[in-house]
Fold this protein.
Amino acid sequence: MKILVGYDGTNSAREALNHAKFQANAFSASVEVVTSMQKGTERKEIEEAERGLEYAKSLFEDGDIECNTHLLIRGLSPGEDLVEFANENKIDQIFVGVKRRSKVGKLLLGSTAQYVILQSQCPVVTVK
């Protein structure tokens, strides 16, 4: 089994890592942790994302879980990146953190989790 975690450093994303770790332990799964960034991102933001991915990898290594990290800067939105990565790598389950927003906020700003839920070909677990 292969699990994908969309990670952006937020508290909800950290919770998604914890839930994915539990699932990976239960099913002897490997984990792919992905951070997606837009093109033209500043070097400082890239370094911060890399540190976040190192943290995520250490969390899974502490539990003896196979984990690979990926920093994607392909010009796609984070939702598109996660769904495309999942399809390319035959992912069985996706974990994403969600932020609490009003319906109007989601309509105006969009939602990475909403895109992943609607477009993914595999099950998606959302974590607050």
Summary: Residues 37 and 68 are 17 Å apart (CA to CA). Helices lie at 11-27, 43-62, 78-88, 103-109, 112-119. The chain has one domain: 2-127.
